[in-house]
Amino acid sequence: MKVFAPLVFTGLLCACAPPAPAPATTEVAGPSDIEIGRYLIRIGGCNDCHTPGYLQADGKLPESQWLTGNPVGFRGPWGVTYASNLRLTTQTVSEDDWVAMLAHRSDAPPMPWPITRAMSSGNHRSLYRYIRSLRPAGPPAPQRLAPGERPSTPVIDMVPVAPDAP
Ligand code: HEC
Fold it and tell me: Which one of 18, 63, 94, 107 is least enclosed by Cβ atoms within 10 Å?
């Protein structure tokens, strides 16, 4: 009989313990900021634009080349935008300014600002700490151009075209 006493006691404790508090927000969790940040970059598609050649290499590029910015522009009615070198951004912008930017910024396509606005500020911080841990690398991306300005780099045209005539 004595053997079961601790089990009964444990059962009582569980019954009386308050329920675990609900998480304050929905966010990605992981063992460290670095692991969370790396995971968010991979599933957020950030390398697709911010890492030259990433899609062409089917994602098989070393992390040392990640997020170094793209010299190929995206041209549309907004002008031409170039996916920034985030390895440099995280050296020049403070962590708090990064969190504010990802929480509030709306801007020209094709940067998916709705994705970063939907993330928790904890996940914004993990992104920042991960990207910063990669250290600075690569040149700054070219300057954004206003509508009508002539690019001196290759661009991807992002305007719908009518289907070919039959
Ligand atoms: C479809 C292409 C595309 C994808 C995918 C993308 N970005 Fe961008 N991103 C851009 C472009 C283009 C710019 C430059 C915007 C501008 O000049 O206004 C940019 C700018 C940014 C900036 C501003 C940097 C600065 O120095 O001002 C941040 C931060 C950023 N992206 C983070 C991310 C993160 C994090 C992800 C993944 C969740 C991501 N981006 C996915 C295209 C993309």
Answer: 18
